[in-house]
Amino acid sequence: MAKVTSNKQINGTFGSVWVNGEKWLDVDSFEAKVTLNFEDVNMAEDLATHKKYTGWSGEGTMTVKKVYSRGATLMATAAKTGIMPDINLVGKLADPDAFGAERVAINEVTFNEFTLLAFEQKTLMTEELPFNFADYDPIDLISV
Questions:
Q1: Do the Cβ atoms of 23 and 70 come closer than 8 Å?
Q2: How confident is the model at residue 1 (pLDDT cuts 50, 70, 90)?
Q3: Residue 137, exposed/middle/buried by CB under 10 A (0-12, 13-18, 19+)?
Q4: Residue 1 lies inside a defined structural domain of this protein
């Protein structure tokens, strides 16, 4: 494998997120990850604990600059009525100096909480939006 130069490390500044098709330009940070679930399996005459894959769960966090009431706009009415909105995300990371771009569709998103109001004197405000998801599709991945 050839030496990798430092300018090929992808820069998060070039990340973007679309929520239900709308590009949110106020996203400060974004992370979505998949956790694999395993159950312990014990076998006769074997002291090791083996694992059996039983499924996965998806979770993430998006932090936005407090420009709009993002969480309340999506979830305030839903929390009171019990009618949850269909939410889909597309995340993209495309540094023009890197080896390529990543793009992932995240579906069946449920936001777990939102902030009604928060402030701190002489502080630029952000809003954290933790979420779970039940489906995902890698669209573009960076490969060797």
A1: no
A2: low
A3: exposed
A4: no
- Domain with residue 112: its CATH number is 2.30.110.20
Which three-class secondary structure state does DSSP give residue 39? strand
> Does the pLDDT at position 32 exceed 90?
yes
Residue 108 domain-assigned (yes or no): yes
Q: Domain range for residue 48?
A: 6-140
Q: Concatenated DSSP letters for 80-118?
A: HH--PPP--EEEEE--TTSS--EEEEEES-EE----S--
What global pTM score does this model have?
Answer: 0.88
Are 93 and 101 in contact, with CB atoms under 8 Å apart?
yes
User: What's the structural domain count of the chain?
Assistant: 1
CA–CA dist 140, 122 (Å, integer): 40
Angle at 14 between CA 133 and CA 130, to 5 degrees: 25
Q: Which residues contact 28 (CB under 8 A, 6 or more apart)?
A: 63, 64, 65, 126
